[in-house]
Every structure is written in C-alpha cells, then in structure tokens.
Amino acid sequence: xxxxxxxxxxTDDERxxxxxxxxxxxxxxxxxxxxxxxxxxxxxxxxKGALAHACARLHVPPAEAWGVATFYHLLATEPSxxxxxxxxxxxxxxxxxxxxxxxxxxxxxxRDDAAWKRSPCLGQCExxxxxxxxxxxxxxxxxxxxxxxxAIAREAIDGAPPTTPAxxxxxxxxxxxxxxxxxGVVDPESLDDYRxxxxxxxxxxxHELGAAWVIREVTDAKLLGRxxxxxxxxxxxxxxxxxxxxxxxxxxxxxxxEPGTFKDRVLLEEDPFAIVEAIAIAAxxxxxxxxxxYVRGEYPLAAARVEHxxxxxxxxxxxxxxxxxxxxxxxxxxxxxxxxxxxxxxxRRGEPRSKPPFPVERGLFAAPTVIxxxxxxxxxxxVVRDGAEAFTAIxxxxxxxxxxxxxxxxxxxxxxxxxxxxxxxxxxxELAGGATQGIAGVLLGGAAGTFVGPDELDLRLTFxxxxxxxxxxxxGVVVVFRDGxxxxxxxxxxxxxxxxxxxxxxxxxxxxxxxxxELLARVRAGAPDGSxxxxxxxxxxxGHVLREASICGLGQSAAxxxxxxxxxxxxxxxxxxxxxDR
Amino acid sequence: xxxxxGLVPLRRKVQLTIDGAHVTATEGQTILDVARSLGLDVPxxxxxxxxxxxxxxxxxxxxxxxxRTLVPSCARLVEPGMVVTTDSPRVRDARRMVLELLAATVDxxxxxxxxxxxxxxxxxxxxxxxxEARAVVDDNALFVRDYAKCMLCYKCVEACGxxxxxxxxxxxxxxxxxxxxxxxxxxxxxxxxxxxxGNCVGVCPTAALQFRAEHExxxxxxxxxxxxTRTDTVCPxxxxxxxxxxxxxxxxxxxxxxxxxxxxxxxxxxxxGRFGFEYLGRR
Lengths: 582, 283
Prior knowledge:
The complex is a heterodimer of chains A (582) and B (283).
Chain A: H1 12-21, H2 32-43, H3 48-58, H4 62-69, E1 83-88, H5 91-94, H6 98-107, E2 114-119, E3 131-135, E4 141-145, H7 150-158, H8 191-196, H9 201-209, H10 211-220, H11 233-242, E5 249-254, H12 263-270, H13 272-286, E6 290-295, H14 300-315, E7 324-328, H15 338-345, E8 369-373, H16 374-386, H17 388-392, E9 402-409, E10 415-420, H18 425-431, E11 439-444, E12 450-452, H19 463-468, E13 477-482, H20 487-501, H21 507-525, H22 532-549, H23 553-556, H24 560-568, H25 575-581
Helix pairs in contact in A: 1-2, 1-3, 2-3, 9-13, 9-16, 10-11, 10-13, 12-13, 12-14, 13-14, 13-16, 20-21, 21-22
Chain B: E1 13-18, E2 21-26, H1 31-37, E3 61-64, E4 71-72, E5 83-85, H2 89-105, H3 114-121, E6 143-145, H4 155-160, E7 171-173, E8 180-182, H5 199-203, E9 209-211, H6 212-219, E10 229-234, E11 243-249, E12 252-257, H7 271-275
Parallel strand pairs in B: 1-5
Antiparallel strand pairs in B: 1-2, 3-4, 3-5, 6-9, 7-8, 10-11, 11-12
Helix pairs in contact in B: 2-3
C-alpha cells in the first residue's frame, strides 16, 4: 500500500488532539475512531487538515478514513459550532413532549457558536424529554440533561453549561434486588465501597474453582443474553475457550442504542466495578489476552466511570495482567450489532459482517471473541458469586434469572426495574407506579420490537411466552402509550429512526427503510400512492424483504414494530370504511 | 479464485441437497458455486468471481433449511447436510423486492439482464418511485462516473482495495440512504490516490463506471453490444503478458477488459493495458 497523503495542514489544536491519543502507543488502525473522536472533541469538527494528520499518523488511506468519519453522526465533517445540544426526538421522549421542544427551538434565533440538533434515542428515557450537550474544547464538555423543556433547552444552548442531574435511583423495594442491589447504594467511584459490598468475591471464587467450573456454571445457569438476541452465554464462552488459538478477546457490548433502552447505562454509571469484575471473570474463563468495553458515544458518564473503575482495580492489582480498554462509539445504532461493533473497534465503518463465521470463531482482529451485553455480564457475575442453582431458582424453566426492564413513556415512575423472568407485563407496569392514563398500547423490545395491545397485559415476560405471542423482550424496553396516542406519528418516528440508522450496506435495508419511512409519511398524511390496499401490499412486501434478506438484525427487525401495530391498531386511514364495506 | 500451480490443499467432500438434487461439493465452495455448477440460474449483481463476496445486493438469497432468514448464496459456504431451495415463493418474493427497490433508487437500464430478471420475478419497477437524476462526474480523460447508476455493490471499492489494486483511492462514505462511493472529501480522481488502472470500471455491474468511448456512444444513442466484437490478445507493454479482451464497435476499440479466470490477471489490469490503446487508432 503506497498512500497518497492529503495535501492540507492541521492546526495546532488538531495536531495536539491526534498526537495525544497516539502519545504512548503504536499507531494501529484500530485507533482511527479514537483519533477522529479526539479531533471532534477538541475542535468540534473534522477538517481536511485534521484528517490529513490522522491519516499520516495512522497510515490509513484517506478515502477509508473519510468513509469512517462520515459514518458516525456524532462526527461532523463540515464546519460546526463548538457547542451542540442534541435533543432527543425518539419514541420515549416524544411520548413526553420532545416534539414541542424541537418546534420551539426551531423558532429561535440561530447562532454561529452554538446550535441544536435532533437526535435518535439518547438512552436517558427515565428523564425524558432528554438532551445531550456537547461542547468542543480542551477539555470538552459532554453532559446529559433531562427532563428538559424549551426554556431549559434554550438556556443549555445559550447560557452556562448545565449539570447532569443525579441518577433517579431505584423505585422498587430493595430486598429482592440482585442486578440492581448496589445501584444507588455504593459510591460508584470507590473501589473500597464496592468491596465492602461483596465486590471482587466472585472473581476470587472463579480463580479458586477454575475456568472450566466457571463455564459450566454459566452454562448450567441457562443464562441467555440480555442484549436482545437471547443466545446462551455459556455456549458462547465454551465455544471461545475451545478454539485452538493463543489469542482470544472479550468485548463488553455497551453500545446500548435500542430506543427506549437505558438499563446498561444505569449499571455502568452506578455499579461500574461490577462490570469490570464480570469482564475479568469472562476473560479468565476463556483465557482472553485482552478485553474491550465499547461504550456508546452518547454515554460520557458511563464511559468515565468504567474507565475510572478499571484504573482503580488495576492499581490494586485485581486485574492481573489483563488489559481492559474503554472505546467509545460515535453515534451509530448499528454498532450495537455485534459484528458491526467489531468492525468499529477495528477502525472501520460499522457495517455488519456476513455470518457465519460467528465471533466465537472469528471475531475481533479475526480471533475468537466473546462479545456480551453489559447486563449479561452482570448476570454472569451473579451466577459465579451465588452459583447456577440460585440463579435458576429465579424465573422460569426456560428463562432463568432476574432481568432488567426499562420503563418509560406514560408511566408514573419511569426507570430501570428488576424483575424475575415470568412477571406479567401488567405487574411490571404496576411496579413503576402504573400508567398515568388508560393504556392504548405498549412497545416491547424497542424500535426493533413489537407493540402489544391493552388486552395483552397478562403476557408473562419470558423468552418463551413472548415468542409464543409473536412479540419479543428485546433489550427489556417497555414504553407505555396512553389512550389517544397518535400511533401514525409514533410509527413514522420509528421508521425515520431506521432510515437514519441503516448502515447502507445491503439493498433491502438501505432502500427498504427509506421506502418504509415514505410509506408511513403517506399513511400519516392520509394520501396513499394508489389505493390503501396497494399500500398494505407494499408494507407486506417491505416487511418480507427486510426480515428475510437483510444482512443483520437492524434490517431484519426494521418493520416489525410497524407490522405489529398494523395488526393491533387502526393505523390505516380507510379502515372504518373498509369494515362498513364488508 | 483459480489456483495457479503449486500444492493444492486437500479439501473434504461435502454432501448437500439443492432443489431436491443430492450433490457432492468441495469444502470451500459457496452455495452459488454449486448451484451454478448444476446449471441453476441464480441471479447476482454484487458478486464477481475475482472478488471476495460483497454480500450487499442480496439478490442471490436462497432458502436454507433450519435458517431463520434467507441466506446469501454468494457468501455462504457449503456445509454437510445442507438442504437448499433456490426458487421457492419466499425466495422469489425477496428477489422481486430487491429488484423493485433497486429500480426505485438506481438507474438500472444499462445493467445486463436486469429487465429479464424483473420479468422472471414479476417485479414492477415503478412501484416504489423513480430514481433521482444525478450529474455525471467527468473529471479525467479515461472514464466517467455516472452515480445515478450506482447500486453500491462495493465491487469497485474491493477492486481498488485489497482484492486487487491495493490503491484504496475510493471507499464508501456516508451512511444509509446517503451512502456513496467517494474519494476523501470528494476530491477529483486526478488529485486522489487513483492510479487509473480502471479495475473499478472492469467490475462495475451497472455501467455506473464507463470508458469515455462507451459514455460518448451511449450519450449519442449508438452504443450497441450486439455490434461489438471481442478479441483476446496479449498486452504489448511489459513482460507480464496480461490477456486483454478488446471490445470493438465500428472499427474502434470502445472498451478493454481481461477475463476474470485468466491465471495472469484474474481480470485486473493496469493503466497501460486498460487504457493505452489510443495509438492504434492513429493513422
């Protein structure tokens, strides 16, 4: 490879941002995203000169670096104001009035040095409507705020930077809590406090009983992944441990981006040492040489807390010689898909890989890789600490253990709730103080999930019950919608989300999500292309090609919420008329 | 890719079933390889025998027993006991939709066999709207880029990158519906890393990349592949001995390609072999 450099000179700030990241380490390709993030954080956008310097230092072809820089929506490739308020425009915040805030901001005067932007779900749904303030500089400012109104949003753009509100804590009786036991109780920045609450006893137990025991215990616990796919964690660990190689990796998927999901953020922010301990256990079990935590770009506090926890645990000698590194995303929902995340970690566009081979065989840097969701790792920690039997004593035969649910929308106390698998949906909503008004529908599993109607609230929340009912637990999202909800607007919002987040690699998803968005705009406007039956056929066909022919879960589930809504709610403008006809 | 002498690794035989036929294939083959060896006409756009599977167009999807979704036959390696169906209603519906979605966003009129496939799968090309017009990018003497015809098959990126040329002058930029093939900051090709090997042109399935002669003839409405002859010869420039296929219309060389199964070129050429033929026309 004989690279042609970009003919442009970086500013001193741009040079410093790049060189700081590469100061004490070899300039490998996988550092491209950290380098681009650093430029963005310091300067507010990635100029030609900055890109030139990044490419020269990392020996990356400029066209490829450009492809990466233009992939992530938190990276700007055109001159941008130093301060940007990202106002959430997604499903949970819309249910709490974010559209009105955006409308009000749109009427305000614009400034050169500060601006606002609509953002997909920021994972702050318990404080909906929420926003993320980002201000470039050295150091930069990154703060999540909420709940906001138009005045608070305007002040965040024009005035002194606001502070992130304290965690809303836990709203349910503490006695039965396991995953959330320490949330709101321990000081998330104190290793001593974590150890005083039993921290690092599970890692000690793992070392005492051995790697094979750990894998057997996690397998016997029937722990299914909590990120959405529900794959058995024990099988994953065993598969990686068995690969004939000397290099293996553990990756913690903390790119929680499913609209309505914020449980992993709460764990990372409030109990970060637990995640670090769980990663150390997983790495021990599969003999991994190195571990990564990929934290979504919109979670500055979570990333800082985990980084602090890793450093503190390392200083105390608790991590042995295992390097654990925090890498941050830069605004791309698709990177929650495990192979897209691995591509992103390697410094490439977050485009999902063709599977097989699966990451257990060929993952990060082509080596066998365990990639687990944050909550899955937190649950594995419980398994190792208390044993498989204690874990399977909770939940049902097929869905073992406790599970976190993210309640938002029209409930009295939005937040993260822990419940044994098998709790009926109605009881879970009651746990959150009940619905604020009559329930018109509930979105389960997020944008990639499905709606259930008010007659389905007795659904038991397990993998098997939801599968039978044609719905999904997904990542534990429960968004409640009150009577009178304009589902046309909700669905159009969901379709717009997928259109925005499709990586563009495969035809079904790149074009299909755009056409689904256009179709729902016509439904909302009451203006069909042809007849409404033509539109129904289009929805059916889009659903088919997205589900059957997309590369990854993003495209495969992009129409699922809309299709489920079409089955349950009167979304078609002609539906009354059609029924009269019959 | 063809194996050019030396030791051939021992490959296991794999038994599978395709459209009811029991087949013995070789480990490392794809479902597409085997289907085509049986004479099954599985349509492809982003596949090329001399590139690694881009796996992007999803036109070649087939049904695999036990799989939750359809699988891309171009990328999926054969496994013992697979039961594959290449032409079920589920497959046909997906292919029809891929064709309809492409037709709604890309000018596919110059794509060989596209109309035939639309007829075969019952695709209605106007059901999801019509593609937007885009200006042709004409920034060099050798070829033009007509991105209205670009379906983002990734082939040109692969040919420019680690599948052939290792120049990395172009990549996919942007995301989703805004994704495009681009140089850094959309720099004109002569200022980019491009070495004008034309390997991108050679693999383009939709004529989004065209030799200047082809572009001029198409603009004049006189491009006619039925009137063209193809003559294989050897490149006169250096000692490598690349096989050239000269495409000639009306006594004029309008395009130069190389067979993808040529052991010398694997279908890839350099700037001289690909574009250095104008002197033949000088009298």
